[in-house]
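name: query_chain
kind: protein
chains: 1
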Amino acid sequence: MNYNELPTKLASQHVEVANKLSRRLIQLRAARTLWHKDMNQFMDHVMRVNEDSLSYDVFPWIIGRVRKGEKSSQPVSMGACQEFMPIVLRFLHSDSNEHLHIALVMVQSLLERFWDQLVAMSRTI
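structure:
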């Protein structure tokens, strides 16, 4: 690499990273607004955007609400959690340790929260 080109290359990469982070912040702010308004709109937004970074950022919110269960002001249903399973599966197959960890925590939370319902459903099959 030519050292004379390094500042130009770094500057262009800086702009690219800044643009990505700006888009991520805008998506996260929109998700946060919908999170407080309506769970269905929130889910639609996350699924429509289909960005792993946004999913990774909001999974702790979902996990927290799943763990609260019926005590939450807007409990998360099993059906709502089912909508996120393609993302969870993608994270489970990811090379990223962070994605793998958050996916495993999500699966653990879902099993803890919905275990009785899952057992009951398995008996009717």
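note: Residues 38 and 74 are 9 Å apart (CA to CA).
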